[in-house]
Amino acid sequence: MTQSYAHDAVLRMEPDADVGAPGAAVTTALCGHWQHEPPCPLAPHHTRAEHDGDAVRLHVLFATAPEREDEVRRRIEAALDDPRWRLLSAAPGVVAPAEAAHAARLAQG
Q1: Could you state, in order of their start, the residue ranges of all structural domains in the chain?
Q2: Rounded Cα–Cα distance for residues 73 and 37 (Å)
Q3: Kind and range of the H or E element at 28?
């Protein structure tokens, strides 16, 4: 049985950097390649990136079996340890009520 989770990170990126690159890095870490056919083998997920001043805030919504949660979080953080940006913080996040339907779809695979 899968459950839904969130992981949040803050990055420092160059102003002209592609804010989609960290999400692609996360997908590669979880799925083997940033561009793949569904389903995601380890954890169906969605990454949202937003500029916040000179920082980029990431919110990764994912679903996996409870016993794999730590592995997924480790892979996310390893993917964000990249020379193209500076990882300022990363920690478990909260699945917001507004994300509940999206999280449920991810959990269904």
Answers
A1: 3-107
A2: 22
A3: helix 21-31
Distance CA 62, CA 104 (A): 10
pTM to 2 decimal places: 0.93
Banded pLDDT at 99 (limits 50, 70, 90): very high
3-class DSSP state for residue 27?
helix
Q: Which helix (H) or strand (E) holds 5?
A: strand 3-12
Return the C-alpha torsion angle 100, 36, 27, 20, nearest 10: -90
List pLDDT tens digits, range 49-66: 998 888 999 999 999 999
Fold of 3-107: Alpha-Beta Plaits (3.30.70)
d(CA 106, CA 97): 15
Look up residue 73 and give its two tokens: 């979080």
